[in-house]
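Backbone-to-sequence.
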């Protein structure tokens, strides 16, 4: 497929799984980046968004125990923890006014000791005490478990969570949808259908969400292409996804590393290819592709922006999941993001949790 045809098909949302796999298998990285940059120019011009975000991992106790996760604990270890509601509020207080936080990404593990009242009370108190914050909360696994424990349908649970303050749902748990890959990753059977079902239910009742793909472990190009296409198909139904983030697997201290299935993290070329192909696959149907600088650093974040991404992501303060693998990500305040975007000739646009413009720099 010629470059011009790719751009046209992308902007019309017409690419199929075979087309996306062709991009992975046959097209070189500079060409992908060039095509993706042209599409991004059509979608959002020279503007790149970011959000003043706080990531809060409220518990590390999880009964799913994925092979790719170094963060979870069973509850028996000395470093297992679950924050009380007061402790969560104390953590938010540290950053809320000081850094102008407008988005709270709050998720942890599937913790069997927590019930629905914990989450309803937690979200109510967050909204009461920090009204500027948009709560981007819980994974689809957490939501499904809470619903089962409370004997509610996912739809009824989501309506209760929304009434208590939940605004959006993050894309955690997508990984790669193909069941053969998920089996190796240690994900429960049918969890890919669960992810898609929870997201579709949320979109149908008007709750926006984000989407992700974790690459660089045991998957191949078909698995990646199939994953992108399934997200595209759901997006066409409700346009409920606010953004898409491809992020590369960190193997440190995981079962996949211990078993010798994945020894190294993906290199820069693979990161750029996934950013570019995501942009080409989604076109205008899913207009925001996030750079995922968290696992790759500021310079790779800049290269991602030049290769099709148009959202930097968020500021980082005391994130715990990636450091559990042994990788130090540090903190990143918004001044660093603004400067990083201006350095590559982009216009930084601060947004809120719903991707609405807060300020143009």
């Amino acid at each position: 497929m010629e470059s011009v045809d790719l751009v046209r098909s992308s902007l019309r949302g017409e690419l199929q799984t075979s087309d996306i796999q062709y991009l992975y298998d046959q097209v070189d990285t500079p060409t992908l980046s060039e095509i993706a940059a042209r599409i991004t120019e059509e979608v959002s011009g020279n503007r790149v968004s970011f959000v003043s975000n706080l990531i809060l991992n409220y518990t590390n106790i999880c009964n799913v125990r994925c092979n790719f996760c170094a963060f979870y604990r069973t509850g028996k270890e000395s470093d297992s923890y679950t924050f009380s509601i007061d402790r969560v509020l104390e953590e938010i207080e540290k950053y809320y006014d000081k850094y102008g936080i407008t988005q709270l990404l709050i998720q942890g593990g599937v913790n069997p000791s927590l019930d629905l009242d914990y989450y309803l009370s937690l979200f109510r108190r967050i909204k009461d005490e920090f009204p500027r914050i948009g709560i981007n909360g819980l994974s689809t696994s957490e939501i499904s478990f809470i619903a089962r424990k409370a004997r509610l349908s996912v739809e009824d649970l989501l309506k209760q969570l929304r009434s208590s303050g939940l605004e959006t749902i993050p894309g955690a748990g997508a990984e790669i949808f193909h069941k053969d890959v998920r089996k190796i990753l240690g994900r429960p059977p049918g969890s890919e259908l669960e992810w898609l079902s929870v997201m579709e239910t949320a979109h149908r009742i008007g709750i926006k969400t984000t989407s992700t793909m974790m690459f660089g472990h045991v998957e191949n190009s078909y698995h990646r292409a199939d994953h992108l296409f399934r997200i595209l198909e759901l997006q066409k139904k409700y346009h409920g996804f606010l953004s898409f983030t491809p992020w590369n697997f960190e193997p440190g201290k995981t079962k996949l590393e211990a078993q010798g299935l994945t020894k190294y993290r993906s290199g820069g070329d693979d990161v750029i290819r996934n950013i570019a192909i995501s942009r080409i696959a989604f076109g205008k149907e899913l207009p925001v592709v996030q750079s995922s600088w968290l696992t790759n650093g500021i310079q790779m974040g800049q290269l991602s922006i030049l290769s099709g991404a148009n959202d930097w992501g968020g500021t980082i303060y005391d994130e715990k999941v990636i450091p559990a693998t042994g990788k130090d990500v540090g903190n990143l305040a918004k001044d660093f993001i603004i400067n990083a975007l201006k350095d590559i000739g982009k216009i930084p646009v601060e947004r809120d949790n719903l991707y609405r413009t807060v300020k143009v720099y």
